[in-house]
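Researcher: Let's walk through a ligand-bound prediction step by step. First, I give you the protein sequence. Second, the SMILES string for guanosine-5'-triphosphate. Third, you return the three-dimensional complex as structure tokens. Ready?
Model: Ready.
Researcher: Here are steps one and two:
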Amino acid sequence: MYDKAEIRVKAGDGGDGAVSFRHEKYVPFGGPDGGEGGKGGSVVVRAEAGIDSLRKYRQSRVYRAESGHRGQGSRKHGRNGEDIIIEVPAGTIVKAVEEDGESLLADLEAIGAEVIAARGGRGGWGNTHYASPTNQAPKIAQKGEKGEEILLQMEMRLIADAGIIGYPNAGKSTLLTAASAARPKIASYPFTTLEPVLGVVEIGQETFVMAEIPGLIEGASAGRGLGHEFLRHAMRTRVLIHLVDGSSASPVADMLHVNEELARFDAALASRPQIVAVNKIDLQEVREKLAGLKQELVVAGVKAHYISAANGQGVPGLMAEVLKMLKAVTPEQPKVEEPLKIFRPRPAGARFTVSRVGDEFVISAPDLERLTGGPNVSPNELRWQIDHQIRKLGLNKALEKAGARPGDKVRLGKMTWEWSAPGGKK
Ligand SMILES: Nc1nc2c(ncn2[C@@H]2O[C@H](COP(=O)(O)OP(=O)(O)OP(=O)(O)O)[C@@H](O)[C@H]2O)c(=O)[nH]1
Ligand SMILES: [Mg+2]
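Model: Step three, the predicted complex:
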């Protein structure tokens, strides 16, 4: 009972930092004033009202958030990229697909719940950041960080294929009992069932899961009483069986009323396929007004089933109709096992690592690798700055610990040079 989709998402890259210098009238070469690049937009998955399936995400495509803009002179920060919101139904589980399996990112239970599925890259520092007493006119800046890119797997978990809705006391528990092996409590007073009860309906070789959605009450959509909770359950079914109490004073008005509540709660719920069944036709009083009731329903444009949940009359026909409708609305069911419920936090990226590869010491430091020369930077200056940053980051200690000796080769990205001992000025 899943509705599934897999999409690739790419957060925005951070904007590049700027290399710029102040231009002042009588100062030929002002100080550095290159601003920071903007942050890249993130990809956010959010449970929204009005969304009832993952249908629109089934065609594979890439969802990208906007990249951050470049920094500018006068210490101007580049504009941040906009987030992109992937709207999904409440009850959607979001997972990241990785080489070694899947990891759970979030279970978006309630409307409004959201998770950042891919984080936007940070903006790069402008050259202002690299000014120091010994280098007052740095011509280097940092490139923006790449936005995260991941394959997302989303699943809307349904509580059942079909949900029985209707007024309290309409006979929902009785119908579930008549059609499945479930044995919910049945009583002649309303609100007997407070939690959804599930039963498996078998028709020949085929089965589906049917749930009694506890009684919908007036004002439910406004969050009154238990109603809201019930509507949320109803959201997580594919087909609704709308059970109408034939012995009520005005069955048609009851039915319209329930539909209004559904629509007020969520438009998607109101447009869910619905099969109407008038119950309790075994009762004399119901039989007496049945002709008039049928007429009324025909006028209302409703094709109803007439059943007695108590003695089983009409129940097999109703179940066959439910199965037929389920087949019409159900997408290809992927075979899935219960997902692992491991919450794996993202590893916080280490600022740098040093490893020995052959006779080289390889530094992996994403923040440093993003350093780039501005238009007029010399390779020497770039090297000088990197050296400076290496000292600032404490990388020399790490190199020492990894066994580096003065004169050993050190590599960072595409650059290699000979290491000079910490403190030892070249
Ligand atoms: N005569 C007759 N009585 C029925 C029929 N279906 C249900 N009832 C009676 O109606 C009353 C309510 O039935 P339930 O099945 O508990 O109704 P429900 O919709 O589950 O009610 P709640 O869970 O309280 O909202 C009980 O007294 C049932 O015996 C039917 O087809 N014919
Ligand atoms: Mg009940």
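Researcher: And what stands out?
Model: The pocket of guanosine-5'-triphosphate (ligand 1) is lined by residues 168-174, 186-188, 190-193, 215, 279-280, 282-283, 308-310 (CB under 6 Å). The longest strand covers residues 2-10.
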